[in-house]
């Protein structure tokens, strides 16, 4: 289980650029063995870019919950275990031709990656940790 983040730490991390947020997410997800999504009564929240339908993911509950405002305020943050992510989500997202938007900030800015790219980065990080 992850330790709650201090509010000052949350603010600092939210100011990271998209690339730095991606690296932070990979490290946190591997360290905590979970990745965070937002769900509503219809399932997982989706975002759309010009080219892709995307599932947004966050490294910690605090960031996912911070995003659940305005039109998203009925959404709940939900953790997906890293094992479940590798075994089900990566293939499921690929089969549905969905991309992932990594740790979007309040401006909806985040790196868009394909499920296999995130899976690869998570596995590389896990190897570093051993």
Automatic annotation (TrEMBL):
InterPro entries in alphabetical order: DUF2750
Official protein name in the record: DUF2750 domain-containing protein
One Pfam family this sequence matches: DUF2750
Domain of life of the native organism: Bacteria
């Amino acid at each position: 289980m992850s330790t709650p983040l201090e509010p000052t730490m949350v603010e600092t991390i939210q100011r990271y650029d998209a690339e730095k947020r991606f690296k932070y997410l990979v490290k946190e997800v591997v360290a905590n063995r979970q990745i965070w999504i937002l769900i509503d009564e219809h399932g997982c929240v989706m975002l759309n870019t010009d080219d892709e339908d995307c599932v947004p993911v966050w490294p910690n509950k605090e960031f996912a919950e911070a995003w659940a405002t305005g039109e998203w305020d009925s959404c709940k943050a939900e953790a997906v275990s890293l094992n479940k992510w590798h075994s089900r989500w990566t293939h499921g997202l690929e089969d549905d031709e969905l991309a992932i938007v990594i740790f979007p900030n309040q401006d909806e800015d985040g790196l868009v990656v394909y499920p296999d790219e995130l899976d690869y980065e998570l596995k590389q990080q896990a190897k570093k940790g051993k």
